[in-house]
Design brief:
By secondary structure, this protein is mainly α. The protein has 26 helices and 6 strands. It folds into 3 domains: about 190 residues, no CATH class; about 375 residues, Cytochrome C Oxidase, Chain A; about 90 residues. The longest helix is centred in the last third of the chain and has 36 residues. The C terminus is likely disordered.
Length: about 750
Amino acid sequence: MGKYRKLWFTLIAILAVTFAILGYFGNEVYRQAPPIPEKVITTGGQELMTQDSILDGQTAWQSVGGMQLGSVWGHGAYQAPDWTADWLHRELLAWLDLAAHDNFGAPYSELDGEQQQTLQYRLKKEYRTNSFNKETGTMTVSERRAKAIEQVATYYSRLFSDAPELQKRRDNYAMKENTLPDAERRKVLGQFFFWTAWAASTNRPGSDSTYTNNWPHEPLIDNKPTSENVVWSVISVILLIAGVGGLVWGWAFMRKEEDREPEPPAQDPITTFKLTPSQKALGKYLFVVVALFTLQVFLGGFTAHYTVEGQGFYGLETSKWFPYSLVRTWHIQAAMFWIATGFLAAGLFLVPIINGGKDPKYQKLGVNVLFWALVAVVAGTFIGSYLAIAQIMPPELNFWLGHQGYEYVDLGRLWQWGKFLGVVFWLFLMMRGIRPALKQKGDKNLLVLLTASVVAIGLFYGAGFFYGERTHISIMEYWRWWIVHLWVEGFFEVFATVSLAFIFHSMGLVSRSTATAASLASASLFLLGGVPGTFHHLYFAGTTTPVMAIGATFSALEVVPLIVLGYEAWEHYRLKSRAAWMDKVRWPLMCFVAVAFWNMFGAGVLGFMINPPISLYYVQGLNMTPTHAHAALFGVYGFLAIGFVLLILRYIRPHMVFDEKLMKTGFWWLNIGLVLMLLTSLLPVGLIQFYASASEGFWYARSEAVMQSDILFTLRWIRTLGDVVFIVGALAITWQVIKGLLNKTSREPVTQPVPAEETM
């Protein structure tokens, strides 16, 4: 550890404490998850549903795309309703109409104010009272509520079929005709939706708030933000301000003088290594990255168009073959694959550099095997999703070969295992080059940190195997966010930071001590908020107030290190003038500058906009969420993967010169297109929905009345401008990479290789 002892102990202590918090309150998620009753009966003893039928409904929901078609508890797609909020509101209205006829002989809408208030009081009392008996595992509902449930279940059964009177609504919801052909599965699907609505409307024992902390906003039963929600939201803002202030003071008064920057070498040290067979084999990885990137971009435009023409594409009835839920699945999975492939390629490129300029034995074979395994997993994922959503795949095979139904981890469990084993194999290939280097003399702190981030990436994806097809959705959400938040936003962030520091040090542009200290400090700052900050996704997923408190507190701290990324962007930008040969890697550097900007704006500003509990209470499941997601996922990880690809391309095709016209078009049109997409469409739509959610209720913000209003319809069409600009940028980048890969001119003679210990 040497002079970095304090930084190492700080990082280790942060990891120990934060994972202890994540584990302890994860156990609370298991203990406090809303109960799934063994049976639901009426006061007259009629059995309405069972635990098995509710879970059968969950698997039916997964098979039609799950979170890619509407959402449950606010997590999922944004065009169709949130099924929890929609079911609840429809059931409440049905109950009120039944009660109005029973008590006053008229529809609820025709009653005077006093009569309506009387029925609303009775409604709230019935729905907020918990009728679940823990000893018998039985939930009891009134005869009137049973009739209301039956009415809504009939509507849902017809909605998910091809009932002609609901065709226009399916079109507005971007649902294909006969979404779920089997009548029995439609019946149990409704039972699952009912249970999610029950948990969102029934008080937790010993509490005056529901199992979902009073989410969604539903004035009919007084579902409104809890006092704890407001308190922890205020605390999170205070912590953000305090954290930013502390960081500024620490930056100004406590940091030591940086090492004097080393004199840049006359030649790029990385070019002094002879290109190894495994590095030459990375060209096909780069091609797959840009191929999947291009596919993902076009699928994104296709998906966005479904928000204005729900079952077609400019008059073609495409939903018969490629419905919204399928293309959205492919859009997200393509992003996961091409970004991950870019990161894997960056690691594999570094192995020979770490290993003193040579490949470990059979490294090229390993690189090729990993590539074809990746191709098989991608193909299996795409084909399986198609067969599942088309309802061709037998239901019992759906979870394993088709569609898990959970956003970002949609791929069937078999393909998920394939992806995990591929990442573990990548870890093995990385360690074959890192292990010998660790045994050499010299300062190995930066290399050890890089190794730790590689190991974390290799192993933490395994969190996705801690839930199954019929796992309680609250527990599933806990583990899902280990992947989506912790694996991606945590350890990939650390790997990116350390790998860039390692590359710049290998180029001789930054000293080893500066690179090491900055990487250790950055890792500590990212993980301090990032690990427990996982809970900010679980405020309303059937968890208790302490989970909200932890999530709000630490998600505020997540934003703190992003504030200084403007300085990081400047540091990266000025590297281009350190040496004449740096001009050859100017465009990869520009991508890294973009990463710093989007980390600050997309992950920081737009992220904190929705992170406090009081904000997320109203906007979870609205277009405010994809505003942050697009800016953070592509702006940060997308640009980072593209930067890695361009950097690798520069070295494996040494005679290639970046086409300035293509690169300017690609870089700036991607950035401008993303800004247009966010600020002219996604964010304005989200703000309008936010107002609708706060004023009328969450169900209303996702209703046809709002989603098909003239202004939202226009804003979704306006998005086409940003999409087109973005697509042009993507095509320019893709063509540059393909042109570069086709440039196979032999490499010039190299100078004497730099000793391995001088590159670490």
